[in-house]
Batch of 2 targets.
Target 1
Amino acid sequence: MTAQEMAAQARSRPGLLTSAARVFDLSLGQMLWSRRSVFLALVVGGPIVLAVALRLAEASGLNFAPNRSGPTGAMIYGMMIWLLYVRFLVPVLGVFYGTSLIADEVDDKTITYLFTRPIPRSAVIIGKYFAYLVCTVLLLLPSVVIVFFLVVPLGRGATVAQMFPTLLTDLGMLALGLGAYGAVFAFVGARLKRPLVVGLIFALGWEPAVLIAPGYLKRATVAYYLQTLVRHEMPQNSPGAALLQIFNEVPPLSTSLIGLAVIVGLGLWLAGRTVENREYVLEQ
Amino acid sequence: MTAESVVHAEHLSKWYGQVIGLNDVTLSVPPGITGLLGPNGAGKSTFMKILTGQLKPSQGTITVLGEPIWGNPALYARIGFCPEQDAFYERMTGLEWVTALVRLNGFDDAEAGRLAGRALELVELTGAADKKIGAYSKGMRQRVKMAQALVHDPELIVLDEPLSGMDPIVRRKTIRMIRDWGRQGKSILVSSHILYEIESMTANILLINQGRILAEGDVHQIRDLIDEHPHTVYIKAEQTRSLAREFLAYDDVLSLKFEEGAVVVETGRPDLFYARLTALAASGELGVIHEVTSPDDNLQAVFEYLVKA
């Protein structure tokens, strides 16, 4: 192969996936070491602090499930997965990172460098979406693992070994949740001027509100499909059980998985279409 | 459109809501170096963003290297763009950044690294290639931006205010470099609000103001008009007082004042003043000169005069 042929080969325009992979490489480090990641790492550390407090409480004499009527460690862990991770941290991570995938580049005025390269614009959002996914998985899942090992041994409930398969399911479920929320908010971020506000209203206002309301509106939420994948034995006759009643209406597993796949696919497609067609006017 | 033109616009307009960015512009940019001269807000950046495919024309058409640019990313392989804004991935080194960007042009890792190294060498940043961009001076940041624009050996290079904030020596080197690229057969469109900068690179000038092209070609009259107006130069330097003492001996210096870490000079002979300043910076006798800029009020005054006339 001649030098000219090699040069021509090297200069061939990269396809969508290759371009997305290269945007991913460019974006991951920026995302991991951003101020946003530091802030959200602190937020994600909240459940760990709570778990440590519970362990300290036990060490100082508090007896968990002394007569099988109180919550065991496994039950507390399950409640934390529901209330802290599924209901709060996953949507919040999705909102803060997802809405910023394009908005940050526009605000920082670095989008110019990506949009003047011979790649499809949609590759930018796809590459950044996967960087988001890796970044949030690296932030969130270690927190779940630490909480699991701190909380599950409390009281006389199921052992760590018995609960371990549940941990793996939880990790997969949370990763899937991050994927679905990320895709939705990537679209919101690409489409709207103030995506963070809209994202927060969607995740912390709209979703909880329609989930407890009867009717079909709940199908327009990510949480509706995600909650099927949460598998925990919950305490009976406890305040936690009452709280969790609101999540009782769940679709079948297959519907949930298809629903989440559709959300990811549709969210990314819409985000890609938006980025391809929209002008981003940088403030002078 | 002439067969040779690298950029051709027909009745090109762009508006942002009620604000007009470009107004019915028809022009052809020939191969070689062309200067786009106009005050801030004249429409230079809007025109450059349209011709690099970042903005869509509201009306009219534009072709770049014979093809429409909006929604045509394949064409970007033939264009290099150095934007005006001072925006970077600050935590990356210059080499990492330029390599990452040229990978997006389809080069493999090894080739991308080699090209990035060569581009940094061209802009004389090899010594700082492994430093974080966040630690670069203003002039270095301008140069690394230029490196990412030329790294893939494009046919057309678009430079938006490339000399802004550079010190006199780097400014002189950069002007020489741009002229060299032109001699090597590259087409270059370079914008500025300072005629003396543009003139030092090319005689082919497009004059733009309020979204309209006022004149094209070799504009001696404008040059004469600008010469009648005093020109202000802002110089950020280590030893401002020594510099001011030196400037007071120059006949062409009409006034000077001090600002924080800088001296602001008003001169009646800008080309002579810039030449002396560059020689002074090169000698290093009066300490380091960090940055030289010129507010665009000089040119604005000339344009106001032109529009009234």
Target 2
Amino acid sequence: MTTPKPRVALFVTCLVDFFRPTVGFSAVKLLEDAGYDVSVPADQTCCGQPAYNSGDKAGARALAERVIGLFEGFDHVVIPSGSCAGMIKMHYPDLFSGEPGWRLRAEALAAKTHELTSFLVDVLGVAPLPATWEGTATYHDSCSGLRELGVKQQPRRLLSAVDGLAVKEMRDPEACCGFGGTFCVKYDEISNAIVERKVADVRATGADLLLAGDLGCLLNIAGKLKREGSRIEVRHVAEVLAGMASGPAIGETRK
Amino acid sequence: MSGGLSPLSFPKNARAALANPPLLKAIAHIEETLVNGRRRATEALPEFDALRDAGRDIKAHTLKHLDLYLEAFERKVLEAGGVVHWAADAADANRIILGICREVGARRVTKGKSMITEEVGLNAFLQANGITPVETDLGEYIIQLRGETPSHIIAPAVHVNKEQVAADFRRVHADLDPKRNLDEPTSLLAEARGVLRERFLSADVGITGANFLVAETGSTVIVTNEGNGDLTQILPKTHIVLASIEKVVPTLEDVATIMRLLARSATGQEMSVYTTFSTGPRRAGDPDGPEAFHVVLLDNGRSAMLGNEFEDMLRCIRCGACINHCPVYRSIGGHAYGSVYPGPMGSVLTPSLQGLDASAHLANASTLCGRCESVCPMRIPLPKMLRHWREKEFERHLTPRKARFGLAVWRFLATRPSLYGLATRLAAWGLARLAGRDGALRQVPLAGGWTRWRDLPAPEGGTFRTEWAKRGRT
Amino acid sequence: MSNRDAILGRIRRSLGVSGSDATRLAATRHRLTETPVNVVPARGQLPSAERVELFVRKASEVFASVARLDGRDDIPAAVANYLRDRNLPQAVRRGDDPRLATLPWDREAQLAVTVGPSDGKDLVGISHADAGVAETGTVVLTSGPDNPTTLNFLPDHHIVVIDASTVAGDYETVWADLRRRFGAGAMPRTVNLVTGPSRSADIEETLLLGAHGPRSLYILVVG
């Protein structure tokens, strides 16, 4: 009698669901290649971060209750986003202070929720995957993943195993890209000043490819690169790791 | 110049700053010197992170016993022959200081660099009452000549270039020979040194702040690189210290611990040039020193921050590291914030001091990137407190209506998965059609804030949930 | 109600505590009398010879100039040479400190030594430090009848004499020594920790020496 495989659920995130399903499929492939059965709860929508960061705790709590209910039955929850994983791991328990029942459930979910690259390296300790990408890439460290979850070495470790790919660090990979959720439209001029600096840093590396682990950052940086007429490709790190990086890059013309 | 603290003037101020290349160049230069300096200095001290933990713990303990340590401090100051005054708010502090100046018939007053005196508006108050205090810190002196406020708590004149300084000196220094060369910073410094030396020597009253108030000994501590604070406090007959109540620390060992964090975090130096402990007026037999020593302890909103979610902010030692590392400050400089304290620490502190109505926008002008917290020597959870202010803003319905509406719509959809699925499917399809074969949109209805500066990458077309369902997966 | 009572009352109300709570009083009394040491960097924890070398290196890094002398009798010559090298007049002001008063100044007959606090017109002042801190190359100067604080700040050039045996590894050692000399909880009127000559970076972030305090600091380490 074989032991049942751990049940892994993918929290796909609202941005990936809406803008770039390829990232979701890449994450599924990586998890299945590592030997897991992957479920995607059909009723998932949003982790509640926009409400939380806008000061609407009640709104965030309403969404958190749904997420907990949908995902707590799995052994692991994996998310291709540092900010959504950070929301669940670091902030969900806070939403239920004074409610021991919910709080316990939030903490239990937090304990088994992981950002994708962190799951692959820290939990699974995966061996190098057979992926190829010829060229030079540079990596942007998304703020939440870096500072809330400690995601820094994991994507670089995984990328070092990609055949043909060299990683060249930009001058300040940890500098914010200026997305900040609603910040980028509420304070668009300041956001633009910040992303201009990030884009200059990316260009200065001479890399052909920009990677990161958060689609919000990627849409923001890609949008600026495109507006400046740059041909640098922008992708989510999962796409390259899963060998699903042959389709159009973010913002790239579709053939 | 900034239009002051208000949600309306912030966007205007920010826009003006973004259109000011010399200002932006000066701010960029700060990154190179102060940020790199901090990195070098902290990497060279293996115990730095342990010191941060110790600093946090010392202040946390002190704040929980603040009343008792203030009483102990007062006792020691009195024992040493000093005088202690208690000021509830800015008006009190100004009144007390003016009273001391009048009592000693002060005509000339010098000042060391002190953000607390900026906070209470001391200079303007004294001037309105016939006393003009002379700023002696070079950066503060420069902005005093220009009638400006500091744009950074450590480097107050960072926004001024050397040509502007030369022009100001020529305008104000009556004895300055027009033929004298003021092209280089060294000559500007020499000119300032000469002019201010005369002021130091003729002052009746010297006013400083305090980086620390030491409960164990009743000492006030100032930290400077120039030596101006020392000349301000030892030459005149009367020395007045203005300090807010959270500056107190228990012992000399506690000062040593936090001292090791302060200069490294502020400028990348291991120690500032002058760290001076002053205890009471001159003793019998002392050949120099002030004859009267006054300490004005100021509350001005600090006691209201104790015991709640903003108490941690009282650990701040005013190093400026958060300001130097903030991407928003880096983009617009200090004046745009319109408040005495800029950057992350200013955005957390200002609503406590000035009220949320005037300053709620400050907590919103942040990406919550968290870099501030990662460099704070006292481990203050700045993003958490920025979020708290956003919560208070939301509770009090200060959040703009459009934003509240958007959040309500999002919540409505996100709690109804079928409706959500339908709406996202339609929108993704619509945007993808709008983009056609282009990978990105140059203009999108309702998204002007984005597309003014960036293209919006087009969605792939189908949403993940529909594509997943199509493949018969669950 | 006085401001004092109002402020203390507000603090206590916010914290939800009483000012006469025995546990709280004991906690503060304990810290103020035991003065516990926190984290002390390992850097300065060296045997005395290496400690002094570290002190010299650190002081030089912050633009003090440092000379090592075998004995106190070498001080007047060192001072005279320093002035000569910089084209300064042979004149220096000192306090009443017996450690400076009893030096063989007559060996440098051309050197005019004046005594007392500075009036701002002296080019060169000389003080005797109580201690040094090797961790950062800092000299510790205390005020008192023999040591005018103005001498540390007004002259253009400041010469500081320090006995090698008083160079400590850290500040905590200096505080313990101060308590021994002045009593627990007591301090001299002024304690100056001086680390290099005066400087400013307020004009275009350019680092310049000699803002308001001395533009040069010359440390003579004796022994």
